Amino acid sequence: MESHSPILVGLAFATLVVALTAFGRRLPIPAPVLQVLAGLVLAALPGVTVPTLQPDLVFFVFLPPILWAAAFFTSLREFTANRRPIGLLAIGLVVATTVSVAFAARALFPGMPWAVAVALGAIVSPPDAVAAAAVVSRLPVPRRVIVVLEGESLVNDASALVLYRSAVAAAVTGVFSLGESVVRFFLDAGVGVLVGLAVGWVLVWALRRTHDELAEILLTLAGPYAAWILAEEMHVSAVLACVAGGLYVRQHFSTVVGPRSRIQSKAVWDLVVFVLNAMIFVLLGMQFTALLQATSLAALPSLLAPGLVISAVCVVVRLLWVPIATWMPRWLSPRLARRDPLPQPRAVALVAWTSMRGIVSLATALALPLTLANGEPFPFRQELLYVTMTVILFTLVVQGCTLAPLIRRFRFTPETHHAQEERFARIEALRRASDVLEDAAADGVTSADDVSWLRAELRDRMAAQQDPSRARERHLLRQRMREAERRMLVRLRNEGAISDEVLRELEQELDLDALRLATAAPHAH
């Protein structure tokens, strides 16, 4: 029994993590912070072995599906409309943070080579896609803020990794070329996007010819890994390959698979992303505990203090960059200022404050080589690991825990644009359905009774868009009717009149109907 105790402890704590995540919305601490704290405690328990993370494995297992899913659920229209602020954050701010951290690191660690300092800056410069989405997307903030933050987190990893690889190569070999690095960035980015689009095209082609729900879901799960592997083999940006592939497949997904596949694939992807997110933050906490356990108590202050300074540098640079990058383009271009006026200061402040670091920073720090080309140890490698972990924990805990109170204090005005677009789309779709129905009624083949019945249903659905209160009453009544049907089906199964298979099939119909009506009447809950 003793040999199984670590497994039992791990399972028990995993259950606790899931419970904390499930009730995270009711707690004042964001779920990612709870999961990191869970990892800290889990790694400190007797008998628990902290797993050794292989950087390549971390990148391959976690990043492809997370980036693909984030891109898949990103609006291409909104991403394109906000490409200027996204680019200024994902490229400009990454470079500014890298340079600032490099100068600070050189001051904190005398004798640190410039290449090593730049590598540290590239490691801690990109905010994490997982952390940003996990904390901000569930809070009542302006839609544009979410689009900009998610768009930044989709692209900034690529720019940071190019800087990181150039700096590490310069540190190992002693040779650095700025021109080559710039060309390499644009080449990596351009070819990476092409690889993602090619994988997306092949995936869409395969989905059109597949008529099995499970096969279609497996194809969507394989897509991000195929894009990542192909891009890595070509030594181009695997990050942008996954982003481009996810965006491309989203544009065609509605027309290449059926409704059952769309519902099932969303459920599967929600579960996959949830599990990966939880594992990421638990592993972050466990790695920090392992790092602390391997260090003497007397040496901790000298190792953690520089990390706090670098954390402050990362936060301050962003606090300065975001307002400047928001104001300066409009100052330089009056036409832009007229077309896109300055956003609310509260929205700018929120973007400036949201910059949690996560798994990408950890993986790149762990990927630092052990030795240089001449066989000497990689300089300041241990210090870089401590600084990185300190920055991750500082930004997650301090910024993650203050976001919700900050947003409540800002009291953003509820946006109605999304609801207006949704209502417009519903009405137009119903009008098109009505046109098809009238064409069918005029062909002389369709049953008049069927046409009459469907015409009445369309009238009811159109009326629901005009009278929300009436729609709510009907929604509640339909709920009662569906529950009565469900209870009768269960009773028939219990009495042996129908099989469990029949119950599952009919219950799924009721569930799909409930889902459709819940989506059609979002205010009826």
Percent helix among the residues?
over 70%
CATH fold label of the largest domain: Na+/H+ antiporter like fold
What is the average per-residue confidence, as pLDDT, rounded to a whole number? Answer: 84
Return the CATH class of the largest domain: Mainly Alpha
Backbone CA Rg: 26 Å
Q: What is the second-level CATH architecture of the largest domain?
A: Up-down Bundle
Number of helices: 21
Shape: globular
Oligomer: single chain
> What order do the SSEs take from the amino end to the carboxyl end, as H and E?
HHHHHHHHHHHHHHHHHHHHH
Low-confidence stretches: none
Strand content: under 5%
Distance between the termini: 48 Å
Description:
- This protein is an all-alpha fold.
- The protein folds into 2 domains: about 50-415, Na+/H+ antiporter like fold (Up-down Bundle), CATH 1.20.1530.20; about 470-525.
- Helices cover about 80% and strands about 0% of the residues.
- The chain has helices at about 5-20, 30-45, 55-70, 75-80, 85-110, 115-125, 130-135, 145-175, 180-210, 215-235, 240-255, 260-295, 300-330, 335-340, 345-355, 360-365, 380-410, 415-440, 450-465, 470-495, 500-520.
- Helix 19 (about 450-465) packs across helix 20 (about 470-495).
- It is globular, with a radius of gyration of 26 Å.
